[in-house]
Design a protein that fits this description.
The two termini are about 35 Å apart. This protein has four helices and no strands. By secondary structure, the chain is mainly α. About 55% of the residues lie in helices and about 0% in strands.
């Protein structure tokens, strides 16, 4: 297998993308990782993911964070929305227990992937013309 020379523009472009992703990840993690409370819909979705594990799959991961005080929350599985996001949250709740980090990690990972996909989609749609690929990001 033969490797050609690395184009300096590509190297700069990918390095800049890596820096953008790293800065985005740093600021989102530093902003939300230490918030030890429910934010917005976190009252419903992580609780539904935990209840799906507990009620449907009969698995009870450790609970390091209390349920919210909403009525019926202990058996709420949120069947009115598709379950994929709750299944993602359930996987990390299984690994880390029921705590804010476990249900926020997917937002950070998928946010990073969104930046990378937007970059390559912009590069594909606008051509390999250097900075134009960053219009997608």
């Amino acid at each position: 297998m033969r490797f050609g020379k690395v184009c300096p523009i590509k190297l700069f472009s990918y390095s800049l993308l890596a820096i953008i992703v790293a800065v985005y990840t740093y600021f989102t993690v530093m902003t939300y990782a230490f918030v030890n409370a429910y934010i917005g819909d976190e009252v419903w979705y992580p609780t539904a993911a935990y209840n799906i594990l507990k009620i449907i799959f009969h698995v009870t991961p450790p609970m390091y964070f209390p349920y919210s005080n909403e009525q019926g929350i202990q058996t709420y599985v949120n069947t009115c929305h598709p379950p994929l996001a709750k299944y993602f949250m359930a996987t990390t709740i299984m690994m880390f227990g029921y705590q804010p980090f476990a249900w926020r990690i997917w937002s950070w990972v998928l946010g990073d992937l969104t930046l990378v996909v937007a970059f390559f989609l912009g590069k594909y749609l606008l051509g390999n013309q250097g900075t134009k690929a960053y219009l997608g990001v």
